[in-house]
């Protein structure tokens, strides 16, 4: 069952008071615009900026009534945005291109890039002696079918001399992936850096026993996740899209300035979260995934259409797209916050 989280009336009122306290514009009696948001993953560090914006009243201050639904992978978000049940979501840029190419329709447009480079990786235990891509030949990897890293693995394989049948995939539930690796039931798994590393450590695997191959270090220069909005919502509620991005940017700034406070808000949202694990996961996401040199210089959110097109073209060859979509048709940058507001690392 999908997990959806909105605020109670008392929490909502508290959020408005908090927003007023930090100088955000007060809301009049105008009705709030509902935004049904599909997250890429569970309530953990990667979704903290959304939770911060929700619980601190930043969405409310923008006139938005936001519901956050947990996800099962960034690739799955793209499909879920076609159902009509969601207005916006965090999806994988490569999966967006693949869907458009093979279905002849644009299910959503990316409105704010979050990961300048894909956080996709292959994890193994060092005792398995998988130190380079060639060592994966003949091995069994596990991941959900909706895993963003698994979806683009063929490009990683092609860039490193692996054939399409050189590895065997075992489709597993996301909750079982890391435990299967820890127990030695599979040779390796695919996933995203922060989630994979910390989930393995939570299972008792020591950091020094984990071997990691990041796709971006092995010839895969793709974008990762982005905030997306459906064409209908973009057309009918452009102000809501812009407001969501402004509030989310504030959430990122707050998470950077007060990581302990951000994790405390996560804990209030998800009582099962482990503070120490989520603090480490948040550090990896903010410093290694979000905080690239380009983002530190130019701010979060901006797309390079030529670079995205290059990635689409590369994927089209190895995944045998039915057609090759244009990057410009999959991106809409009109609703990004102004450049100064997007400088989340300025402080």
UniProtKB/TrEMBL annotation:
Q: In which pathway does it act?
A: Cofactor biosynthesis; thiamine diphosphate biosynthesis
Q: Name one GO biological process term.
A: thiamine biosynthetic process
Q: Which reaction does it catalyse?
A: N(6)-(pyridoxal phosphate)-L-lysyl-[4-amino-5-hydroxymethyl-2-methylpyrimidine phosphate synthase] + L-histidyl-[4-amino-5-hydroxymethyl-2-methylpyrimidine phosphate synthase] + 2 Fe(3+) + 4 H2O = L-lysyl-[4-amino-5-hydroxymethyl-2-methylpyrimidine phosphate synthase] + (2S)-2-amino-5-hydroxy-4-oxopentanoyl-[4-amino-5-hydroxymethyl-2-methylpyrimidine phosphate synthase] + 4-amino-2-methyl-5-(phosphooxymethyl)pyrimidine + 3-oxopropanoate + 2 Fe(2+) + 2 H(+)
Q: Which Pfam families does this entry report, sorted A to Z?
A: NMT1
- Position of the signal peptide: 1-28
**Key word Iron present:** yes
All copies of domain SsuA/THI5-like, residue ranges: 48-257
Q: State the similarity comment.
A: Belongs to the NMT1/THI5 family.
What task does this protein carry out?
Answer: Responsible for the formation of the pyrimidine heterocycle in the thiamine biosynthesis pathway. Catalyzes the formation of hydroxymethylpyrimidine phosphate (HMP-P) from histidine and pyridoxal phosphate (PLP). The protein uses PLP and the active site histidine to form HMP-P, generating an inactive enzyme. The enzyme can only undergo a single turnover, which suggests it is a suicide enzyme.
Tell me how this protein assembles: Homodimer.
Q: What is this protein called?
A: Thiamine pyrimidine synthase
């Amino acid at each position: 069952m999908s997990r959806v989280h909105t605020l109670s009336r008392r929490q909502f009122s508290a959020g408005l008071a908090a927003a007023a306290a930090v100088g955000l514009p007060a809301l009049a009696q105008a009705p709030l615009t509902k935004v049904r948001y599909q997250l890429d993953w569970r309530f953990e560090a990667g979704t903290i900026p959304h939770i911060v914006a929700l619980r601190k009243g930043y969405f409310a201050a923008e006139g938005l009534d936001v519901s956050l639904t947990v996800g099962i992978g960034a690739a799955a978000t793209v499909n879920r945005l076609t159902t009509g049940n969601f207005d916006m979501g965090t999806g994988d840029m490569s999966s967006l291109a693949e869907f458009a190419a093979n279905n002849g329709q644009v299910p959503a447009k990316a409105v704010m890039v979050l990961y300048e480079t894909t956080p996709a990786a292959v994890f193994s235990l060092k005792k398995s002696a998988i130190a380079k891509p060639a060592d994966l030949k003949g091995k069994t990897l596990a991941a959900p079918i909706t895993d963003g890293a698994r979806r683009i693995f063929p490009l990683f394989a092609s860039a490193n001399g692996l054939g399409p049948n050189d590895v065997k995939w075992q489709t597993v539930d996301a909750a079982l992936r890391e435990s299967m690796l820890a127990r030695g039931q599979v040779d390796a798994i695919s996933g995203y850096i922060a989630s994979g590393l910390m989930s393995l450590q939570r299972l008792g695997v020591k950091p020094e026993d984990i071997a990691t191959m990041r796709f971006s270090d092995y010839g895969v220069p793709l974008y990762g996740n982005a905030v997306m909005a459906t064409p209908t919502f973009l057309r009918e509620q452009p102000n809501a899209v812009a407001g969501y991005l402004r509030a989310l940017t504030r959430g990122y700034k707050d998470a950077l300035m007060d990581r302990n406070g951000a994790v405390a808000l996560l804990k209030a949202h998800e009582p099962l979260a482990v503070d120490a694990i989520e603090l480490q996961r948040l550090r990896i996401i903010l410093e290694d995934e979000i905080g690239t040199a380009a983002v530190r210089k130019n701010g979060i959110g901006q797309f390079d259409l030529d670079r995205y097109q290059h990635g689409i073209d590369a994927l089209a060859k190895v995944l045998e797209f039915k057609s090759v979509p244009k990057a410009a048709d999959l991106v809409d940058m009109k609703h990004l916050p102004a450049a100064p507001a997007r400088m989340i690392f300025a402080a």
